Amino acid sequence: MAVEESFGLAHLWAQSDLVIKLVAFTLVVMSVASWYLISLRVLRQLRARRQDDAVESFWRAASLDEGLTRLSRTAPASPFEALARQGVAASEHLRRHTAADTLGGTLDADEFITRALRKSIALSTAKLESGLTVLASIGSTAPFVGLFGTVWGIYGALIGISASGTATLDAVAGPVGEALIMTAFGLFVAIPAVLAYNAFNRANRLELSELDAFAHDLHAWFCTGSRLASGAPSVRDVRNIPGDQNAEASITGAA
């Protein structure tokens, strides 16, 4: 009982040197940053659940202005609203500058709207991926930071045992067990970050896939005045057709 009372987190912190305290402080900062980012992303995912209904509500609107109003009301500041407004802005710009006797009259409307939608998707992708790099870095480095603390703690414990001349099981097990706490702390920080990174990365892929489909429908609507039929091939399907170089099939592809 005396051994259990003399060793633990409090004893480890009291007898640890500057290196161990810096390692512990680093892991605490990593944990706080990780849970902060996880909380922000969870709140965003909860808001994003309404986006599917918002897109369908947009297409059921009687006019373009009404559709944009519905998007702003049901999915404010979402990638879908940004994409629709970017498409509208590109279409209006093209309409104002395509007089037959001007240089703008030679613009390819298909390519111009494609590039506008592609730009909006690129910006939305950057926003969706914000913070994921930090989570990935924490998940991959926290175990090694904790392991470094363990190695350093064991080294210090062995030096202390050697100096005291006492090498009994009780004298060795206590300090070494304390040092192993740092490895457990590192895993405690890393595991939630890795799980959150994988979950958010999958959610981003699904959202970008939906955004890609919405962009394809918008492109068809601005170019032809009609949304694609529900049975039409997706952007990725059209992209894989051999020999197809149509700009309409590469809304989110490379320029």
Features:
mainly alpha; cell inner membrane; transport; protein transport; 0% strand; 255 residues
Structure, described:
With 255 residues, the protein is mainly alpha-helical. The protein has one domain. 76% of the residues lie in helices and 0% in strands. It is built from ten helices and no strands. The protein has helices at 2-6, 9-15, 18-48, 51-59, 64-74, 79-96, 109-128, 132-164, 169-224, 235-239. Helix 6 packs antiparallel against helix 7 and helix 8 (132-164) packs antiparallel against helix 9. It is rod-shaped.
Structural class: mainly alpha
User: Helix count?
Assistant: 10
Q: Span from first to last CA?
A: 71 Å
What is the succession of H and E elements? HHHHHHHHHH
Shape: rod-shaped
Runs in which pLDDT lies below 50 for 5 or more consecutive residues are: 1-5, 231-255
What is Rg?
A: 28 Å
> How many domains in all?
1
What fraction strand? under 5%
Quote the average pLDDT: 76
Number of strands: 0
Largest sheet: none
Helix content: over 70%
Short description:
Involved in the TonB-dependent energy-dependent transport of various receptor-bound substrates. Protects ExbD from proteolytic degradation and functionally stabilizes TonB. 76% of the residues lie in helices and 0% in strands.
Q: What topology does this entry show?
A:
Blueprint: H1 2-6, H2 9-15, H3 18-48, H4 51-59, H5 64-74, H6 79-96, H7 109-128, H8 132-164, H9 169-224, H10 235-239
Helix pairs in contact: 3-8, 3-9, 4-5, 6-7, 6-9, 7-9, 8-9
Pfam families: MotA_ExbB (PF01618)
Subcellular location: Cell inner membrane; Membrane
Subunit structure: The accessory proteins ExbB and ExbD seem to form a complex with TonB.
